[in-house]
Amino acid sequence: DAMVIQNPRYQVTQFGKPVTLSCSQTLNHNVMYWYQQKSSQAPKLLFHYYDKDFNNEADTPDNFQSRRPNTSFCFLDIRSPGLGDAAMYLCATAIAGEVRQETQYFGPGTRLLVL
Amino acid sequence: AQSVAQPEDQVNVAEGNPLTVKCTYSVSGNPYLFWYVQYPNRGLQFLLKYITGDNLVKGSYGFEAEFNKSQTSFHLKKPSALVSDSALYFCAVRPNTGGFKTIFGAGTRLFVKA
Fold it and tell me: In chain B, which residues have pLDDT < 70?
């Protein structure tokens, strides 16, 4: 089945130790998003890719970086995690350019714990 | 500023009763409107959307939503609630002004009691 996959589902890291979260999709969607969600709050958009074009939200800390080596994969790198970065990280995909396909398809999320 | 409001943090309803989860928005133009549901420790799942056309939109699991342009509202409804509907519901708005950003409401937790 076509889907959005996130690995790992749970990640524990130490304060200041870099961590990478992975997202892959079999939907062949050209837009990929990364959201941060804390304590059942609204997902907060960190950045998105439209094909290879990277779009950073103005309030996304520099500590957060992303890579999209190809259509299927997108990575979230947290260079020096702080305690405040503990959250659920959600990856989502969508098709741009087709009005009827504005729906976002979310992965199951990666829950990050910073010790 | 563009925003989405879900005025109720929590909605409680008895199984078999109708439910409504409210959403209003402040976005210029004719935005796209969505409802997503989130179960514990899971990603968001798409329920339904309004792009254009009939103001009453039907979606997954028996849910529907009514778009009201004059009130800028998009309330989620279901005629008969199930215990399994208990989850966190997010209203989302995508401004139709270019770009790819979707604005999410703060979420409403629905509890359906048996």
Answer: 98
B95: CB partners within 8 A, 6+ apart: B2, B27, B28, B29, B31, B101, B103
Tokens of A32: 């990929």
pLDDT at residue A39 above 70?
Answer: yes
pLDDT tens string A43-82: 999 999 999 999 999 899 999 999 999 999 999 999 999 9
Identify from A4, A5, A40 which residue to disrupt to test chain B contact, counting B C-beta atoms within 10 A and taking the largest count.
A40
- Which residues in chain B have Cβ-Cβ distances shorter than 8 Å to A33? 100
Using alpha carbons only, what angle is made at residue B83 by residues B82 and B87, rounded to the nearest 5 degrees? 100
Alpha-carbon distance A27 to A5, whole Å? 11
Rounded to a whole number of angstroms, the distance from the CA of B27 to the nearest CA of chain A is: 17
b/e A97-109 (16+ beta carbons within 10 angstroms → b): eeeeebbbbbbbb
Give the list of residues 6+ apart from residue A40 with CB closer than 8 angstroms, or none. B38, B88, B107, B109
